[in-house]
Amino acid sequence: MIRVGIVGCGYWGINYVRVFSELAQAPVVRVCDLNEERLRLVHHKYSSVFPTRSLEELLSDPNIDAVVVSTPAVTHYEVVKACLLKNKHVLVEKPLSTQIEEGNELIQLAEERQRVLMVGHTFLYNPGILKIKDCLSRNELGTVYYLHATRTHLGLIRNDVNAIWDLAPHDISIFSFLLNTQPLWVSAVSGCFLKSSVPDVGFITLGYPQNIIGNIHVSWINSNKVREVVVVGSKKRIVFDDLNNLERVRIYEKGASITGDVDTFGEFQLQLRDGDIISPRIETSEPLKNQCIHFLNCLAKGHTPLSDGKNGLNVTRVMSAITRSMENRGSPVDISQ
Ligand SMILES: NC(=O)c1ccc[n+]([C@@H]2O[C@H](COP(=O)([O-])OP(=O)(O)OC[C@H]3O[C@@H](n4cnc5c(N)ncnc54)[C@H](O)[C@@H]3O)[C@@H](O)[C@H]2O)c1
Description:
CATH architecture of the largest domain: 2-Layer Sandwich
CATH topology of the largest domain: Dihydrodipicolinate Reductase, domain 2
Bound molecules: nicotinamide-adenine-dinucleotide
CATH class of the largest domain: Alpha Beta
Low-confidence stretches: none
Radius of gyration: 21 Å
Strand content: 25-35%
Helix content: 25-40%
Largest sheet: 9 strands, mixed
Number of helices: 9
Shape: globular
Strand order of the largest sheet: 16-13-12-11-7-10-9-8-17
Number of domains: 2
Number of strands: 17
């Protein structure tokens, strides 16, 4: 049995309390939050869980094997470091850290202490994204041309990070997972419409090996809530719509490619493919629960998580390059590996 402590019980953290409470092999022993109101709410729903405002108190409990950190992004480094120093395994929400050096330090610390460090890139545990991954692995799409993600909504404005740091890590982790590679460069522009210095809208372009382009649009101020990822290939296009419970993934068997000598004018043939639109059956499991089960399996079997510290650091690295590009009105920034 793995006993779990949860730090941060806000909008997202309370989902971890629910999920782990449903997993018999990993009871939640303690929760920690600076906000008394949140602690009262958790205790009211889960009376066996011991609430505390003190991280020190939670970490001093020798019965706790693993800690979930779901505090605001800018606090991740401090909180995760404290957990690792007390020899706890850690599952931290995205992003791993907001600074590359801090992420590096956490990875090193986890290695030294032989602790599992996992980052909550939930979409890597989403059956819809896994379906797309499966199609790509079978080369069903032909040559991948580009990916496009839209993550927009109205509200839930954060105080610690801007809209780009809040939302884009999801799509960056999805793109790298689907393509099995990291972007080489990035160009990004942002807009500050509500507060003069905090971007609430972002347009990000990423360049991947083999000339594949990734494009991400994020916004906190768009009344049209969209959670969509599109992959366009020479044979097919796949659309993942996280808000569509009936048809989460649609495969359009349509695409364009050319054959023949493409460099000789008139010597090539354009091939337009027109086929069916397929809505494959997608397993209905909860991504967050899948992610937590993966974490527990890694602890039990000594496996490296799919979204381990290094995977999380790759996302932080891309986010840092995005920030630099935004500061220079979209100038391309190379991403050092
Ligand atoms: N994977 C996803 O789909 C997803 C969705 C939403 C949020 N998140 C991530 O989850 C994390 C939390 O987001 P949220 O929306 O729940 O934020 P939130 O502001 O609603 O909750 C954060 C909670 O942490 C508490 N807190 C802050 N500092 C603390 C500290 N040092 N020790 C203990 N408690 C502390 C706050 O009092 C608050 O209750 C963020 O990293 C965010 O990026 C992930």
